[in-house]
């Protein structure tokens, strides 16, 4: 299979300090890059053939997911590379996708490159309550679904108690209309985008390889449900 690669990563990946958050201009929340067609072909295939692995809950029923679909469609209407009407989205690759309000996560996953995880405050922590995750990097959605932030980040060595408290404060403080972003960067032997390794697998992220994989991770609060949306736009380039 032909590798799906971007020509470049549009930010400097040299500073990897945690959590490394910075303001994100709202108009840049959803990106379209030169790997759009290839990534979207794979996303649509995964949603059609492996839905249980990439979407949770499987039936798509979720109040914040409904709000997220509305939020995404509103954003896409401002982008000249998309055409959005009441029933369909025509995407930058020319593919027209039906808007299925009974399947908000499946619809989102077929029109934008970004994966989205929805986290809601339960008690003292935010919990992963819904997601469309086509391009996991060394983790499985089924392992993290309905888990709080501290469990989601096991076994990330750098994610100690201090970082956990800082991240939870960050989630608590995210304001509507003021999204944030950060990035990671890891070396992989394979350019494969869908890499759902089981949790606790020590060498899931390979130490040596020809490819640099970076996630541009965004955080946005939905105005009505107040859920936090964790977006993951995946870049893979040759080192």
What does this structure look like?
The chain starts with 21 loop residues before the first strand and ends with a strand. Strands 1, 2, 6, 7, 8, 9, 10 and 11 form an 8-stranded antiparallel beta sheet that branches. The protein has one domain (22-238). It is built from 7 helices and 11 strands. A hairpin with a 5-residue loop joins β4 (88-90) and β5 (96-98). The protein is globular and about 45 Å long. The chain is α+β, with helices and mostly antiparallel strands.
Characteristic terms for this protein:
3-stranded antiparallel β-sheet, 239 residues, 11 strands, alpha+beta, globular, 8-stranded antiparallel β-sheet, 24% strand
Question: How would you sum up this structure in a few lines?
Answer:
With 239 residues, the chain is an alpha+beta fold. It has helices spanning 36-49, 51-54, 63-76, 104-109, 141-144, 149-152, 161-173; strands spanning 22-23, 55-56, 83-84, 88-90, 96-98, 115-122, 125-132, 180-183, 186-188, 211-221, 228-238.
């Amino acid at each position: 299979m032909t590798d799906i690669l971007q020509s470049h990563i549009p930010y400097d990946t040299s500073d990897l300090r945690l959590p490394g958050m910075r303001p994100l201009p709202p108009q840049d929340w959803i990106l379209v890059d030169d790997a759009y067609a290839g990534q979207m072909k794979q996303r649509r295939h995964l949603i059609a053939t492996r839905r249980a692995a990439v979407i949770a809950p499987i039936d798509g029923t979720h109040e914040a997911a409904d709000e997220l679909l509305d939020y995404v469609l509103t954003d896409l209407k401002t982008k000249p590379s998309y055409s959005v009407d009441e029933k369909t989205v025509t995407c930058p690759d020319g593919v027209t996708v039906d808007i299925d309000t009974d399947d908000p996560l499946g619809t989102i996953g077929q029109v934008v490159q970004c994966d989205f995880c929805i986290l809601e405050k339960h008690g003292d922590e935010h919990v992963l309550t819904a997601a469309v995750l086509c391009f996991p990097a060394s983790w499985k959605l089924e392992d993290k679904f309905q888990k709080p932030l501290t469990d989601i980040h096991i076994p990330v060595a750098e994610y100690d108690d201090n970082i956990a408290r800082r991240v939870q404060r960050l989630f608590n403080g995210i304001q509507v209309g003021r999204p944030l972003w950060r990035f990671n960067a890891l070396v992989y032997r394979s350019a494969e985008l869908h890499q759902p390794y089981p949790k606790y697998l020590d060498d899931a992220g390979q130490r040596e390889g020809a490819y640099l994989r970076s996630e541009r991770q965004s955080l946005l609060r939905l105005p009505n449900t107040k859920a936090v949306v964790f977006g993951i736009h995946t870049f893979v380039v040759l080192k």
